[in-house]
């Protein structure tokens, strides 16, 4: 049976769980955080805030209707009230806050999160009367259910009332200004002290970029990494120390896992705060993750302020695509990042990984930015390990220098010896598996300079393939997809065009567009979504075009009898972006409302078709089988002879 804290946490989180469907659109110029944050301690570890409960729930209702997730408007607010018992006395238009003051007990694994819930109330006594008093409890003066004290008397009492929640569990409630403070812990409720300047403290901790994106969000989550960071790092270090594969990684999979953990630790070490902002508007839904790095921290020195990447889209040819992205490398100190990574013991335990980073660094430092467009391979279903066909365009400081560095990188990569996970072996004489000798992965690279002429340009043909032990079969296909590549490369001034398939037509399209433009920069759906969701100075942009999945989606839906699915020609893509400013990072995703409408219509078609199939099946089952009594051709059994 779930404990009291767990059940109360579920009740509290139910107030905002539905709100996770609502996301962030473009921010306004406001640089302040909601004043409701003054109701929480400035050093709280985690704060979840819904600035306007009624408005957020109304937006969720609209989203349900658009996606056809319910036959009628679900009325989320009414459902929340029914589930929690928060009926009378609630201020529907007020802010709801969930506070997790200290997560150290959770990170230690010793107890559950200490949850506090702040609910806006128009009439505290009416709110308290929603619940019966807990058996044996002594109501606080002026707060006994059934009484109507004046507000002064109620405010004067600082004691909590024990109440029985709808699920039978006991919680403690106390009036705090225009809020009702609830928790399963009486100690937390009685000792709770708000800001009063927490909003300003949170704003300073988050920085200008994150504060900008918090304006008018329907749901916000604030993480105090100054407090959480050291606690989480200690927990991670304990886990690393107890796991030999992480403490001393050798194989490729172990090193990748350790590298991911190392990145997380670096962020936890150097970031002061993070926020998640969600908002729903009549233009679409979006989500923004923001983090602010501490001044003069190592990571803050490596990530400063970037520049717009949108101009690189002009170098991508127009046409159907699945994913198109552009990036600018300004504001990123890769050599400094590499030095920081080298300080970790990973370098000693996996020298091949550090060597690989050193090998590729000169190539990265030659690049200024670029763009990539990918389409679904015609044989994607037959070859799921390599489903995408891509064309990339890279702007370099010097095209010939980049081309030379690229060749040197491929040659040096062949010197790497990458350990793989050992595979247990067995034999008839020894049926029990025994550890095999650790297999080694080598990479073979072949470059054929000036292999052909495309659009008047000399083109290199390159082949990169993995060299695996003969008996290493279980992961051979996955490793081949990870390391194998074959394609073409052409240099145009300071730009390098590369394909991941040996397709001269694809490369010609890229070369022709490079001279004429404007390519995907003129794509109307991309332009429309960029105006709605992407900051002008975003360091990276990406657009996921569902029309690029049209053939596969049609094939899938045909299995369910949907044969009239039609993708609108102007269906906008999903937009993703990354903004780098003053050592702050903002990552965003935006789903246009037209895409939601299309998804809702498709869901409705699927639902209608399923209902039709069920009705047809029921009709077939209700028909008598020929040859049975009462069926056509057999009106009934003849009477028995007497």
What is this entry, summarized?
The chain has 642 residues and is α+β, with helices and mostly antiparallel strands. 37% of the residues lie in helices and 24% in strands.
Task: Sum up the structure in keywords.
642 residues; alpha+beta; 20-stranded antiparallel β-sheet; two-stranded antiparallel ribbon; 22 strands; 37% helix; globular; disordered N terminus
What is the residue-averaged pLDDT?
81
- The overall strand count is 22
Strand content: 15-25%
The gross shape turns out to be globular
Spans where pLDDT lies below 50 across 5 or more residues:
1-30, 141-157, 430-434
Distance N to C terminus: 69 Å
Number of helices: 21
Percent range of helical residues? 25-40%
**Radius of gyration, whole Å:** 31 Å
Q: Which structural category do the helix and sheet elements fall into?
A: alpha+beta
Largest sheet: 20 strands, antiparallel
